Amino acid sequence: MRPLRFVKKNIFYNSDRIALVQLISKIEYHYFLKTSLLNPYYLAPNDFLNIIFRLCLALLLGGVVGIERQIRHKPAGLRTHMLVSFGSALFTLIPLQAGMQETNADALSRVIQGIAAGVGFLGAGEIVRESSQQSQRAEIHGLTSAAAIWASAALGITAGCGLWQLGLIAAILIFLVLYLFKRLEVRG
Length: 188
Fold this sequence. Notes:
Elements: H1 2-37, H2 48-71, H3 78-97, H4 105-127, E1 128-130, E2 138-140, H5 143-161, H6 164-187
């Protein structure tokens, strides 16, 4: 009789251990889903394909805006917009790659604020230009080009964060605003 109870007890304990292991694996699986698959900001340090995808996406999104500016023969053209978008994505990836297991939202927020402010200075250089020597007054030019540079930086941030759907939609809308509304301004 005794060995039979021991076997039942052992089976009972084994089933408890199995249930506990299953519970722990479910918790780990849900944590993995929460931190990696469902979190677009999650980026494993050795995930080179994802990093390359995000950086190339930034170049593509900046190129969409830059090609329109290049066609219109603006000083800030294709290369400028691609580099602004690429740089923004690169700065956004730094806190995601800095070895943090869980992304600190404050660090990412500060990087995004720094990009927006820094690119604002780049746009300011595009806006104010000296006019000809005859009039001796400053004229304001390039507001749309400055706004396009700023928007390219935002596209780079979306690519760096892995928000590719938002980036593609925004790039198409920016291109439409730059291309279609220019035609409406000329007619109006």
